[in-house]
Design brief:
Length: 426
């Protein structure tokens, strides 16, 4: 690794203009990634490390994997200019640069194929699939960097990642305006591709856990509790008096993958209608994986079956994401997604839980951004924007002093979404 310092020369990426000033923009504007390492020294991280019996968060490999540039290699191999203190730096996303840093300044670099660049360790983030999978590796997790139930219980935030929303909030250090001119449906495509990447990350974690169990001689493996619907356990024990019933599941089995897997299934199922891209393979493989885990008590599934199904799911999701990326950007994509999201029959396709309805809301926002980008008009009437969208957000917000949605009602969200349908622009 060459470190951030290897990219910040004024003649490289440390200039002041948009092109050539990428590192400057990252250093000055992207505080969340730039200061990710600093977080490991704050009061919460110190307390978490103590509760988990760790020496210190800033020396723990699984913390550094996402709070700094990937430091799996010994520090001595990272080069004199490399420093963990730069947090999530250039090479965290663009790939370890030692083998391509010189080549990427050559005129022939632009004509190289993505595969030849990848062989050198370079990640071509112009690909939305590569971009989403890179983000998901930390914001959902990977086999070597997972936020498990112990970490969350100690104080780490739950990983509730949705690519299109995160991407919209990310301070850009590249020409994002040119990107949107080339692909005006990017927000809604990122929504689908991001769910593919998130579910793929979940599949990879399951496969790694199953492989580890097999290697240790175990025949069964149980997913970590953090992979299930949090509110299935963390909720008021009083009988609910309102709202439609939650989906039935086997006794003792909360819903697995309620945040990442369920919306990916919806997106894959609707992929042909929305994107003209066949998602049946991804949908079927996810259903097989979900059924295997869901129909086992507390998700304790046969390790060999879990390994096979999780690997198949990962392959199908990757292929589906690439197929969406290969379809032309179309103004009809956001319209079709909104129609499916706001249709009454959507009730049966989304989990009647906070996870399901929050994801449904985020999908509406992604579709609305795409409509605005393509047509220059709002997707909803002024009343829909001024009244209904804020009401939806309030319904899904946690009450003050709560870490779970205490006053949440799935039926109220259904009602607001159906009302919003009457405020769509024509």
């Amino acid at each position: 690794m060459i470190g951030v310092a290897g990219c910040t020369a004024a003649s490289c990426h440390g200039g002041k203009s948009l092109i050539g000033g990428e590192a400057t923009a990252w250093l000055t504007r992207d505080a969340a990634h730039r200061r990710a390492y600093d977080v490991l020294f704050d009061e919460t991280s110190v307390r978490m490390a103590k509760q988990l019996g760790l020496k210190a968060a800033h020396t723990e490999a699984r913390c550094l994997a996402c709070h700094s540039t990937d430091s799996a290699a010994p520090h001595a191999l990272n080069g004199e200019r490399f420093s963990l203190e730069f947090g999530v730096g250039c090479e965290s996303c663009h790939g370890t640069a030692g083998d391509w840093i010189a080549r990427h300044t050559e005129r022939s670099w632009r004509s190289r194929s993505p595969d030849s660049k990848s062989a050198l360790g370079f990640r071509d983030l112009r690909s939305l699939t590569v971009r989403a999978e890179t983000c998901a590796a930390c914001h959902v997790g990977s086999p070597r960097a997972t936020v498990d139930h112990d970490l969350i219980a100690a104080g780490h935030p739950r990983l509730a990642f949705e690519m299109s929303a995160y991407h919209d909030l990310l301070p850009k250090h590249w020409d994002s305006a040119a990107e949107l001119r080339h692909d005006p449906a990017q927000p809604v495509r990122l929504w689908a591709i991001g769910h593919g990447a998130s579910a793929k990350a979940m599949s990879n974690i399951s496969a790694a856990r199953a492989e580890s169990a097999i290697n240790s001689g175990a025949k069964h493996v149980t997913p970590d509790l953090a992979e299930f619907d949090c509110q299935a356990c963390h909720h008021d024990l009083a009988e609910p008096t309102r709202g439609r019933p939650t989906l039935r599941s086997p006794l003792g089995s909360p819903r697995w993958g309620s945040w990442s897997v369920a919306p990916a299934q919806f997106a894959a199922c609707q992929s042909q209608t929305i994107f003209g891209s066949d998602g049946t393979g991804a949908d079927a493989s996810l259903k097989t994986l979900l059924d295997l885990i869901q129909n086992s008590r507390l998700g304790t599934a046969p390790a060999d079956m879990l390994l096979t199904n999780a690997r198949q799911s990962s392959r199908e999701l990757a292929a589906w994401s690439r197929s969406i990326e290969d379809t032309p950007s179309d103004s009809n994509q956001s319209h079709q997604l909104l129609q499916r999201l706001l249709a009454a029959e959507s009730d049966g396709e989304w989990l009647p839980t906070w996870d399901g309805q929050a994801q449904r809301y985020l999908a509406v926002i992604a579709a609305a951004r795409t409509t605005r980008q393509i047509t220059g008009r709002e997707a909803f009437s002024p009343a829909g924007i001024a009244e209904l969208l804020p009401k939806l957000r309030k319904q899904l917000s946690y009450s003050q002093g709560y870490n779970t949605p205490h006053d949440f009602s799935a039926s109220d969200v259904d009602r607001l979404l159906l009302e919003l349908r009457n405020h769509t622009s024509h």
